[in-house]
Amino acid sequence: MNKPNIVLIMTDQMRGDCMGIAGHPDVKTPHLDTLAAKGVLFDRAYSSCPSCIPARAALHTGMSQTSHGRVGYEDGVRFNYEHTLAGELKKAGYYTQCVGKMHVHPLRNLMGFDSIELHDGALGYYRRPDIPYYENQKIADDYFHWLKNEKGIDYDIADTGINCNSWVARPWPYEEETHPTNWVVSRSIDFLRRRDRDKPFFLFTSFVRPHPPFDAPQCFFDMYKDMELTPPHIGDWADAERCQREGRIVDSLFGIADPELARQAQIGYYACITHVDHQIGRLMNALSDEGVLDNTIFIFTSDHGEMLGDHHTYRKARANEASAHIPLIVSGPDKLIQRCSRINHEVAELRDIMPTILDFAGAAIPDTVDGTSLCDTMKTESEVREYLHGEHSLGIVSNQFIVTKTDKYIWETQTGDEYYFDLAKDPQEMHNAINDAQYKDRVAYLRSILIKELTGREEGYTDGEKLIVGRTPIDGLEHLYRSVGRIK
Q1: pLDDT at position 134, please?
Q2: Does 103 qualify as catalytic in the annotation?
Q3: CA distance 384 to 371
Q4: Active site residue: 52, 98, 243, 272, which one?
């Protein structure tokens, strides 16, 4: 049999619960639901370092955050890895194309792809006056170039008054075909026309949305504007006072103080998700017209989630489900996808996507890869891992966490605050059970796992026996900077 084509579809900042098939009461995702119904939904999938850059390092390399070295968000550090997903597929005879968001450094780093058509959203680092001309995003970004030169629209992200981390929402002001979500699919479809038909293809279709700005076309806002939306989940541990104090800041990490603006953010976020979903449907129709669906495997995921007002918080980088739990679907015809159930409860992570795709392609998996192919667990529901260690450095909200199929332990490195959630009974993390007597032994066990994971780390988070509060968090481990010849 010929090698299968592989289409990897990725969103930015999409929560794992925001699909109809995941049980969300409000969000409508008919095309993603279709993919999941024809494949496997991994309902315990995570991003172990939930922000754009470290998540994409895991996706492209198959490495854990401790191996690829990015444990927080930091622009300007070169992606310099021996083995990448696209590079290994190219070695295996695939024609490889990325359309949309890469968010790597430098901006046009191919990361093993034969070609990229780039749209990274708005990246402040690459818009500074000291950035060289060829690294300036308005020059390097293909979408902005197309919009100005082909459509005559000299648009930039902030032109509508919304910054790229804002919870303010408003509809797209131009024709729908000019929206970046549509552009990503239009260029993906054009790739199908001009691809080398003597080779199997790997297409990475990578959306910026539903990452802010929440600016889907008007018709998608209209789907939700009169709906009685489920309010944000507010746990007994949430800091309402801080939300009132800081939740008037449009890109605050600490929630949205005005309930009506919080509702508008939900409308805008859900509108962006449904807009992406409809464009995925458009891509699926194009693949059907090409006659390649019977030999194509689809993987859908996101780099991280969005707190969206849950627990009086906003944005990402947190260990909570809304931030770290991501969608993950593997789909395709029965001859290519062997599955024993439609929903898999094993703990999966972005690092697992590279070995899974290489497994489907019949390609060797490099020994630098930390992830595990998910092909076996789809067939037999075998255990992928007992637990996942995750983390993110971000000032006062810097955190470390251990998550399993049934529960989660979180330690905040700067405050020493601890959280324990029995996810089997409390999937929305409404009750912090850290001091509940019935969980005392379980908390001690998960804490011991975290101590083991952090022993020897350069931050000094532990002496091997206890966790140490207040150590300075860092965004990159020393070996990351050594690999790019940069002294930190």
Answers
A1: 81
A2: yes
A3: 9
A4: 52
Locate the domains of the chain by residue range.
5-381, 390-483
Instruction: Using alpha carbons, select from 294, 295, 299, 284 the residue that is nearest to residue 358.
Output: 299
Q: Which CATH homologous superfamily contains domain 5-381?
A: Alkaline Phosphatase, subunit A (3.40.720.10)
In tens, the pLDDT along 445-462 reads 999 999 999 999 999 999
AA letter at 52: C
Residues 466, 468, 474, 477, CA torsion sign? negative
Residue pair 205/100 in contact (Cβ under 8 Å)? The answer is yes
The three-class DSSP label of residue 7 is: strand
Global pTM value: 0.98
Annotation says 119 is catalytic: no
pLDDT number for residue 488: 66
Identified catalytic residue from 68, 103, 233, 312: 103
Burial 19-52, CB ≥16 within 10 A → b, else e: bbbbebeebbbebbbbbbebbbbbbbbbbbbbbb
d(CA 391, CA 48): 6
Average pLDDT over residues 38-61: 98
Question: How many CA atoms lie within 13 Å of 348's alpha carbon, on the beta-carbon side?
Answer: 34
| Residue 106: how many other CB atoms lie within 10 Å | 13
Of 21-30, 109-118, 121-130, 390-399, the least confident: 121-130
Domain boundaries 390-483, corresponding CATH code: 3.30.1120.10
Q: What is the pLDDT of residues 156-191, one digit of tens each?
A: 888 888 989 999 999 999 999 999 999 999 999 999
